[in-house]
Specification:
about 290 residues; 8 helices; alpha/beta; two-stranded parallel ribbon
């Protein structure tokens, strides 16, 4: 009996030792796992939580190829809505037939981006004082907001020109249907103020001409109008600089680009005080005809 008790005691002790060893081994394994870095690669989700990483929904669209250069305004350029920076120095091959001269010895003054209730009346008063007729390239939404100024422009004998609905420099890159809708809407706003007024000219914002925008404007009975003299008055360089550039670069048949809206245009208004008498003495100034061939 004594021998049996010893065997049982030894078996119990061995069992206890086994349990203790198992517990110790288990704890050691857990401890060891906690000290080893997780080597599992995370699954790609397509979303980054890095605050400095790209925000895909806000990324700009893919840049067009060199065959279709972007016509959007540079983020580093002037923020004013009336700027005509893109394509302003485009060669003839990029104008797709847009007119850069009057076709005669006469010179044409053109004013873009209006009408504007502050500056357009001043420009009209100055033109009236010197008995000069000009061409106003008007933005559709401005024509809609200021029909009285459209009426005043026409009443003074000036020519109207379609300049798109919202001065969309990239309009020429849109579909033909979208371009047509934009130009028709602008003409409708103009004619809501002055029914049946001739609108036979179209000027693309920024001078960013494309074949589609030229084609659609022609289909609607409008002739594309560019320019040959640009004093960059949209940058508001001051009256002296504006006047000096126009008077220096003007020549027979020139189409002069200036602005009566889209920003602070007081410099342009003040420059006209010098430009108008000097140009009138050198050239015959005309409003572009309303029946171009």
């Amino acid at each position: 009996m004594e021998a049996v008790r010893r065997v049982n005691s030894t078996a119990r002790a061995a069992g206890i030792v086994t349990v203790v060893l198992a517990a110790l081994l288990g704890s050691a394994y857990v401890l060891g796992r906690s000290l080893v870095p997780d080597q599992t690669r995370p699954h790609a989700t397509g979303v980054t939580t890095d605050a400095t990483g790209p925000h895909y929904a806000d990324q700009p669209p893919e840049q067009p190829s060199s065959e279709h250069p972007s016509t959007s305004q540079s983020a580093a350029g002037p923020a004013e809505a009336g700027q005509d920076g893109t394509g302003r120095d485009a060669g003839g091959d990029k104008l797709f037939g847009a007119h850069t001269d009057t076709g005669t010895a006469r010179l044409a003054l053109t004013f873009d981006d209006g009408p504007d209730p502050r500056y357009t009346p001043q420009v009209l008063a100055m033109l009236r004082e010197y008995d000069v007729k000009a061409t106003f390239c008007v933005v559709g939404e401005n024509a809609q907001d200021h029909p009285d100024l459209i009426q005043a422009i026409v009443a003074d004998g000036h020519t109207l020109c379609n300049h798109s609905w919202h001065h969309d420099v990239s309009l020429g890159n849109r579909s033909a249907d979208q371009i047509r809708t934009d130009l028709v809407r602008t003409n409708q706003a103009i004619r809501a103020a002055v029914p049946d007024v001739p609108i036979v000219w179209y000027r693309q914002p920024g001078g960013a001409w494309t074949y589609p925008v030229v084609s659609v404007s022609r289909q609607l009975g409008m002739t594309p109008l560019h320019w040959s003299v640009d004093p960059s008055d949209w940058q508001a360089p001051g009256a002296n600089k504006i006047a000096s550039t126009v008077l220096t670069q003007a020549q027979p048949g020139a189409v002069v680009l200036m602005h009566d809206a889209g920003g602070d245009r007081q410099g342009t208004v003040d420059a006209l005080r010098r430009i108008l008498p000097e140009l009138s003495a050198r050239y015959e100034l005309e409003a572009l005809p309303t029946d171009p061939t």
